[in-house]
Amino acid sequence: MKKIVAAVMAAAFVAAAAAAFAAKKETCKVETVEGDKVTMTCEKTELKAGEQVEVKKKEEKKVEGC
C-alpha cells in the first residue's frame, strides 16, 4: 500500500513540475490603457492574437530609511 501511495505522490509531483515549466514568461511594456483594453509591446514573443494570457504587475522594491 505504501508503494502505491508513494508512486501516486511521485506522479503528482512530476505533473505539477511539468505544468510549472510549461508556462512561458514574457517581458513586455504597457503602452496604453483604455478602459478594459491594454496595449503592450514585447521584444520577442510567441503569442498569437486571441490567446489568453495572465498578467502580473512587477513588484517594485521599497527602500525604507531609519
In terms of topology, how is this protein built?
Layout: H1 2-22, E1 28-34, E2 37-42
Antiparallel strand pairs: 1-2
Euclidean distance between termini CA atoms: 58 Å
| Beta strand % | 15-25%
> In which range does the helix fraction lie?
25-40%
Strand order of the largest sheet: 1-2
Description:
By secondary structure, the chain is α+β, with helices and mostly antiparallel strands. It has a domain at 2-42. Helix content is 32%, strand content 20%. It contains one helix and two strands; from the N terminus they run H-E-E. It has one helix at 2-22, and strands at 28-34, 37-42. A two-stranded antiparallel sheet has the order 1-2. It starts with a helix and ends in a 24-residue tail after the last strand. The relative contact order is 0.10.
Features:
66 residues, alpha+beta, two-stranded antiparallel sheet, 32% helix, flat
Short description:
By secondary structure, the chain is α+β, with helices and mostly antiparallel strands. The chain contains one helix and two strands, in the order αββ.
